[in-house]
Design a protein that fits this description.
This protein has 475 residues and is an alpha+beta fold. The chain is 31% helix and 21% strand. It has two domains: 5-103, Ubiquitin-like (UB roll), CATH 3.10.20.70; 120-472, Glutamine synthetase/guanido kinase, catalytic domain (Creatine Kinase, Chain A, domain 2), CATH 3.30.590.10. The chain has helices spanning 5-14, 43-48, 107-120, 189-201, 228-248, 293-304, 306-313, 319-322, 369-385, 407-410, 420-429, 442-461, 466-472; strands spanning 19-25, 31-37, 50-53, 66-71, 77-78, 86-94, 126-138, 140-146, 149-155, 206-211, 218-223, 252-254, 268-276, 279-280, 332-337, 342-346, 358-360.
Length: 475
């Protein structure tokens, strides 16, 4: 929207903008913000940034926690959710010690370094990502976690748990029966349309939206292709708009991979294209499913490192309740054409050279998109550098339903981790591909494993689960 601090300040003055909101993503992938009155905004302030507590963002120890947010002026947009006229801008996290520089664990910095490494490694001059955002929109959610009790309850008009006519209009959606559902069953059309329009106004191009498989209110918004960092920014913006629009419309939204037992889970599928001088390097009319050797090597790299990637792409304990057979969520480390049971799917309906691509399906939106997208690209580059042939490595192609293979054939398959603890173990033993070109610092990998173990794995592992009462209370 703006190319310089001067342009931004001039716009704020002319448009009577009262506040400038610095938005930044912490290590876990949560959006945070700090707001400055427009009267205090100067070119010097925008260049020097504002100080923050980096410890609270998850990046550093408390004894060395001073860090700085410096805005990326090009990402500025008019924030649609504040009554006070506000411009929001995504920010980079900088160190204050030594030479002024991006902090090595800054997620946006890592995404930028991954983009730079694509060109430095002579892989291509531009890698493009196209994400699909799946999520649920409910009418009400309540949850409780205390020492003497835990519970959650979800109410959705799509699948009401009541016969009260004031809360139920009769148009019930079948479980796992919502794919491309039309109104009146599709009661979330206006929500999706409003979200899409807001995204467009904030600079994120939307391809389309629709109701997804989950009958309890699962929907999808798919966006156009762009670079690693821009699509990571877009991912944070999609979540920001969805959460706030839901609240504004009297609803509640979640990107949890598996909020409802027995319903379809929500993923963050991402499509890949690699360009050089505008030419799609992933296309070869004579190759398998129209893919070039470069594309297959890229796929081979992702599948080789799939276990480690899940530590970033599926970083919640809830992620592994989605990655189970029977819900179009892949569990097998494999590739195929038109096959949603494989980790990598090549869309069968895409024939042209310009649009040839493939899709990584296991990822979900509890990820930090800057880290996850960068990890996927680094794995793909390693596959090209190492000339990994996915077929010779035993990853397919499997153009059959992997869950219906004979038992002897299923034993030959390789599978994704079944828990976050297992994924973190994979990352600890397989992370050299991430450090190429200095993209992922070793300290970040260690920090990630430590934080996810302490804050996710152990707290969940140590708490009684309501279903355990069903299983064991009377034994």
């Amino acid at each position: 929207m703006f190319s310089s601090s001067r342009e931004l300040i001039k716009f704020m003055n002319n448009s009577k903008i009262d506040m400038l909101d610095f938005k930044a993503t912490d290590l876990r992938g949560k959006l945070r913000h700090i707001t400055i009155p427009a009267s205090r905004v100067t070119e010097k302030m925008l260049e020097e940034g504002v100080g923050i507590d980096g410890y609270s963002y998850g990046f550093v120890n408390i004894e060395k926690s001073d860090m700085v947010l410096i805005p990326d002026i090009k990402t500025a947009f008019i924030d649609p959710f504040y009554e006070t006229p506000t411009v929001s801008v995504f920010s980079n996290i900088w160190s204050v010690e030594g030479d002024e520089c991006h902090h090595p664990q800054c997620p946006r910095n890592i995404a930028k370094k991954a983009e730079k490494f694509v060109t430095e490694s002579k892989t291509g001059d531009n890698i493009l990502l196209g994400p699909e955002y799946e999520f649920y929109v409910f009418d009400n959610v309540e949850y409780l976690n205390e020492s003497r009790g835990s519970s959650y309850s979800i109410f959705t008009k799509s699948q009401p748990l009541t016969s009260d006519p004031a809360r139920y209009d009769g148009y019930k959606m079948a479980a796992k029966g919502g794919y491309h559902a039309c109104n009146p069953q599709d009661s979330l059309y206006e929500f999706r349309s409003q979200a899409a329009l807001l995204l467009e106004k904030c600079g994120v191009a939307v391809k389309y939206h629709h109701h997804e498989v989950g009958g309890a209110g699962q929907v999808e918004i798919e966006t156009a292709f762009d670079s690693i960092s821009k699509m990571a920014d877009a991912t944070m913006l999609v979540k920001y708009i969805v959460f706030n629009l839901a609240k504004k419309m009297g609803k509640t939204a979640t990107f949890m991979p598996k909020p409802i037992y027995g319903e379809a889970g929500s993923g963050l599928h991402v499509h890949f294209k690699l360009l050089e001088d505008g030419k799609n390097l992933f296309y070869d009319a004579k190759g398998y499913s129209g893919l070039s050797k470069t594309a297959l090597n890229f796929i081979g790299g992702i599948l080789k490192h799939a276990g480690a990637i899940t530590a970033f792409a599926n970083p919640s304990t809830n992620s592994y309740k989605r990655l189970v057979p029977g819900f179009e969520a892949p569990t097998c480390i494999a590739f195929a054409t038109s096959n949603r049971s494989a980790a990598i799917r090549i869309p069968g309906y895409v024939k042209s050279m310009e649009d040839k691509r493939f899709e990584y399906r296991p990822q979900d939106a509890t990820c930090n998109p800057y880290l996850s997208f960068a990890a996927l690209v680094m794995a793909g580059i390693d596959g090209i550098d190492s000339k990994i042939d996915p077929s010779k490595s035993g990853y397919g192609p499997f153009d059959v339903n992997l869950y219906e293979l004979p038992e002897a054939e299923q034993k030959k398959l390789k599978f994704l981790p079944q828990s976050l603890a297992e994924a973190l173990k994979e990352l600890k033993s397989d992370n050299a591909f991430l450090s190429k070109g200095g993209v992922f610092p070793k300290a970040l990998v260690d920090n990630w494993v430590s934080i996810k173990t302490k804050e996710d794995v152990l707290p969940m592992q140590n708490r009684p689960h309501p279903y355990e009462f069903e299983l064991y209370y009377g034994l």
